[in-house]
Amino acid sequence: MINYRPFGNLQWLLPKIKNVEKWSICGCISPEDRSIGVLRELHKHTLSIKSNFLIVNDPISPFSPEITLKVDALKKIATSYDKDIIVNEFSLLYDDHSKIYDYIHNFIEISKGDIILDISCLPKRFFFPFVKFFYKSKSIKNFIVTCTSPENYRQEGKLADNCSPWATLPFFSDLEETQKKDIILLGVGHLPMASLEPIQEICASSKLELFFPFPGHAASFILAWKFVHEIKRPFDNKKDVRISHISAVDTSELYDNLITSIDNGANGISKAILAPYGPKPFSLAMAILATNFDVPVFYTQPRLYYPDYSTGIAIKNGIPVVMAYALVLQGQRLYGEPINNA
Fold it and tell me: Are 322 and 296 in a shared domain?
C-alpha cells in the first residue's frame, strides 16, 4: 500500500484543501527574509489568516544589535500582512518547558483546528515539540508544515557557531548512559557540531545510517561531504555505515526510509537514535518519527546564528519557493498514529 502524502509549493497545495474558514499560522520571525515568506504568500492570495509568531532570542553576542534591527524590520513588514499578528518572545536555550507547553496548547485551542506551522526559521528546540503536539492533537483537522527556501546562504564562514554539547531535544525521550544503540539515523548537513566524541561512543558497536540530501543546495555539496567524512571516521574499518541518497525536499520518502531502518517500530526507543541535521524536510520526517515511535532525538544546539545566515527568498519559474507538507488532512493523520504518551 502506497501512502499518499501531498507536498509541493504552497500555492499548489492550499487550494486543494477544502472547508477551511481561517488558517492559524505559527512561525518564527528571525533576521532572515524567508522567515515571513509564508505570510507574504498568504497575504498575496488574500486568504483569511490568524498569525501567532515567535521571536527566538539567541544569547547576547556582538551581533545582537544587528539581529535586533533586522528582526524589528521584518516584524514591521509582517504586521503589514496581518495587522492583528501576535508576537511572543522566547529564549533559545529555555529552561522552563512549561512555557513552551502552554504556548503550544493555547495555540491549538485558538486555532479552530486548521494549522500552518512554518519551520523556515524555527530552531529544532521549538519546531520538534510543535510538530509533536500538533500532530498528536485530536482537535486538529488540517495540519500543514511550510518551509521557505532562501535565495542565498551565507557565502563565507560558518552559518552558526558556539554549539552546545550533545543532548536530547526537550519533550522527547531522554538518552540514558546505560542504553546501547543498534542504529544511529543521521541527516547529513554542514553546520558545525560540538566534539564528536559523545556520538562516537554511542555509535560504538552500532550501525550508522546517513541520509544524504540529493540533489541539494549547490553551495552545500562540498560541506555535506566533509560532514560525512567526519561523522563516519570511527567506522572506517567496519561495514556498518550506509549512505542513503534522498530527495532534499521529500519528507515522505525519508520517513518511509526511517521506518524501514527501525523495522517499522520494532526496534523503537531501545535500539535507535535520531540526529537531525541536513535540510528542514529531513528534520520534519525525523520529528514525525520521534512522535510516532518515541525515538530519542540527539542534537548539538548552536548558540549563535549569524545575522546573514541567509538572504532573500528563492524563486522558481516565477514563484517563491515555499514548500508545504500535509501531515493531517480532514482529521486523517497521513504518517500513522502516534504513541499515546504525552
Answer: no
Q: Same structural domain for residues 171 and 281?
A: yes
Q: Taking the alpha carbons of 230, 232, 238, 242 in that order, is the dihedral positive or negative?
A: negative
User: Whole domain around residue 263: which residue ranges?
Assistant: 165-300
* Set of cell numbers at residue 89: 518572545
Same domain, 290 and 239: yes
pTM comes to 0.91
What is the distance between the alpha carbons of residues 183 and 259, in angstroms, rounded to a whole number? 12
How many other C-beta atoms are found inside a 10 Å radius of the C-beta of residue 192? 15
Rounded mean pLDDT of the chain?
86
Higher per-residue pLDDT: 223 or 193: 223
Query: Rounded to a whole number, what is the distance in angstroms from the first to the last CA of the chain?
Result: 29
190 and 272 share one domain:
yes
Cα–Cα dist 71/182, whole Å: 43
Based on the structure, what is the number of domains in the chain? Answer: 2
Cβ-based neighbour number of residue 277 at 10 Å: 23
**Residues 336-340: contacts with CB under 8 Å, at least 24 apart:** 336/292, 337/292, 338/132, 338/135, 338/136, 338/291, 338/292, 339/291, 339/292, 339/293, 339/294
| 117 and 45 within one domain | yes
Task: Tell me the pLDDT band of 33, cut-offs 50, 70 and 90.
Answer: very high
The candidate with the shortest Cα–Cα distance to 55, out of 83, 26, 23, is: 26
Report the C-alpha dihedral over residues 223, 225, 228, 233, rounded to 10 degrees: -110
CATH number of domain containing 29: 3.40.50.11700
Query: Is residue 159 one of the residues assigned to a domain?
Result: no
pLDDT in tens, 240-285: 778 888 888 999 999 999 998 887 655 445 578 888 888 899 999 9
Are 137 and 92 in a shared domain?
yes
Q: Is residue 339 part of a domain?
A: no
Count the alpha carbons within 13 Å of 322 in the hemisphere toward its beta carbon. 24
